[in-house]
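Record type: monomer structure entry
Structure origin: computed from sequence
Chain ID: A
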Amino acid sequence: MRYGGERIRVYLTCLALMLSIFTKISVDLYSGAIFLQQALNWNLYASVIVLVLLAAFFTVGGGLTAVIWTDFIQTVIMVISAFILMIISMSFL
């Protein structure tokens, strides 16, 4: 193939994947820090540091299993909350 062929395709795929991952992590940290700043009146940078340390503690302390269980529990809470919100909003119709 022309212009690098398979190498350029692998390079661009890896680049897009890395940019996507870093963008998601950055947005997650920033949105969590904004929430902590508004809810607890903390400094933005202190909030980011707290979130990074909390994520590192979960990952190192419990390993990937702790992260999986945390994601599972968050999903259950979000689904139950969505159903409750749906029922409440339908009662106003």
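Annotation 1: The helical segments are 6-40, 44-91.
Annotation 2: The two ends are 61 Å apart (CA to CA).
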